[in-house]
Specification:
Blueprint lengths: L1 E2 L8 E4 L4 E2 L4 E2 L2 E4 L5 H7 L5 E5 L1 H6 L5 H5 L9 E3 L12 H9 L4 E3 H6 L9 E4 L4 E2 L1 H9 L3 E3 L7 E6 L4 E6 L32 E4 L2 E4 L11 H8 L9 H4 L6 H17 L26 H7 L5 H12 L5 H14 L3 H10 L1 H19 L9 H44 L1
Helix pairs in contact: 10-13, 10-14, 13-14, 14-15
Length: about 425
């Protein structure tokens, strides 16, 4: 296992190359461990309520080899719709394994789908129930969860398909849902709160929780942010306080002084532990308002294009931002202005990429020259304001030349050539 060296993660992250999916461009399984020097932050985030996490052991089993998805992909017959239950912790990103590890570190007790199916009243013993990517559940489990009065649905696509659990054989069998037994059947429980369409947003840049009949739902798939975003963990802990439900969006605007006091302990704790974090530069104005943290968020379009924020192209952009631009005042000011513009449209473009492989490939072709031109800045010295401005202006001019001037020249030459041919033809006649 190799540790991912990133000081902005609030947990230690370890990866193993055997779990790297080259097609998708990311690790299907990572190991999460606490940082020794983050005890103050963990004290703020740790569970202090009568809460419980339901580990999605049924979903983990459904995703196994020779399981449900091999049937969906027509690699086997209905025999693959009955699978043995796997061991807890033997999951991957599909079964919200990272969130399980993070919440366990923070002191949340864990039960499994099996526990709830055996005794649905077990949930009555807890004041708060946290549902992960529990996509496959039994009817008894579905009823127990949806009848509880305080549930956090941390992953879209939860409670999507009905399975039957056989305790004697320790297996589950698909009963209804996910286009089975009929193609027209989607949610196997016809659940009115189904939010499966939101599971494709894995960047979670504009994450927020919203109310449903028996609790809160998150509007994105948080597997890639749960280990680095202290605020989403605060939202889980303080789910009774609406302030935290959409803090990612509030943090991008101006926060009144009374609400800022809620953020301050987390920000102070992050400042103590994280190097090069932009929150160190937060200035309290007369009203104690805080501006957008320019180092927050990612390159949504490039991440959607290349499949993961761990892709080499994305890491080059991140290194340029963190190690070069944000070290100077002009670079920080540029990033702040750029982010205001970029995030006004990039979530939409990223969604289009996820929906259309053809559009995604078109974007890849379009942005590749720009990515390579920007990456050149990683090989020059930008240790002064003058150099940042000089190289920055040169890069802008280079891209203007590539994307505007060069195409304009080509179009002009083609039209001029066609014009000459047309007039020569007229003269000959």
């Amino acid at each position: 296992m190799t540790e991912v060296d990133n000081d902005k993660y609030i947990f230690r992250i370890f990866v193993d190359q055997k779990y790297y999916d080259s097609e998708k461009g990311f690790y299907t399984k990572i190991s999460v461990q606490p940082r020794v020097d983050y005890s103050n932050l963990y004290d703020l985030l740790k569970n202090e309520e009568n809460a419980v996490v339901i580990y999605p052991i049924f979903t983990q089993s459904a995703y196994s080899e020779n399981g449900f998805y091999d049937y969906y992909h027509k690699l086997c017959d209905e025999q693959c719709l009955e699978v043995p239950i796997r061991q807890i912790g033997d999951g991957n990103y599909n079964s919200s394994d990272i969130s399980y590890q993070v919440l366990k570190i923070l002191g949340y007790p864990v039960i499994t789908d099996v526990d709830v199916d055996r005794d649905p009243t077990i949930l009555d013993s807890y004041d708060k129930v946290i549902v992960l990517h529990n996509e496959y559940v039994t009817k008894k489990e579905f009823n127990a969860i949806t009848s509880h009065t305080n549930v956090i649905y941390l992953y879209p696509n939860a409670l999507y398909a009905e399975v039957q659990y056989d305790e004697s054989s320790n297996k589950i069998k698909l009963i209804r849902g996910h286009n089975y037994p009929e193609q027209s059947i989607t949610n196997g429980f016809d659940w009115e709160s189904d939010n499966s369409s939101q599971e494709y947003d894995t960047e979670c840049f504009s994450w927020q929780m919203y109310e449903i009949k028996n609790g809160l739902m998150l509007n994105c798939y948080p597997e890639q942010i749960i280990f680095k975003d202290a605020f989403i963990l605060m939202a889980i802990k303080h789910s009774d306080d609406p302030f935290w439900w959409n803090i990612s969006q509030k943090y991008g605007t101006m926060i009144p002084s009374d609400e800022y006091q809620k953020l301050k302990p987390v920000l102070d704790s992050l400042n103590t532990n994280i190097r090069n974090t932009e929150s160190q530069n937060i200035q309290n104005t007369e009203n104690q308002n805080i501006p957008k943290n320019t180092s927050d968020g990612g390159c949504l379009i490039a991440t959607a294009t290349y499949g993961s924020e761990l892709a080499p192209q994305i890491q080059q952009l991140r290194e340029l931002r963190d190690e070069q631009l944000l070290r100077t005042e002009s670079g920080s000011n540029f990033m702040y202005g750029f982010n205001q513009f970029y995030y006004s449209f990039s979530p939409t473009i990223a969604d289009w990429e996820r929906e259309s492989p053809v559009f995604k490939e078109s974007v890849r072709i379009a942005i590749t020259p720009m990515i390579y031109s920007i990456s050149m800045l990683n090989y020059v010295d930008m240790d002064s304001e003058a150099k940042v401005l000089g190289y920055g202006i040169s890069l802008i001019l280079l891209n203007v030349g590539m994307y505007l001037v060069a195409p304009a020249v080509v179009i002009y030459k083609v039209r001029k050539f066609k014009f000459k041919r047309t007039h020569l033809g007229v003269l000959k006649i």
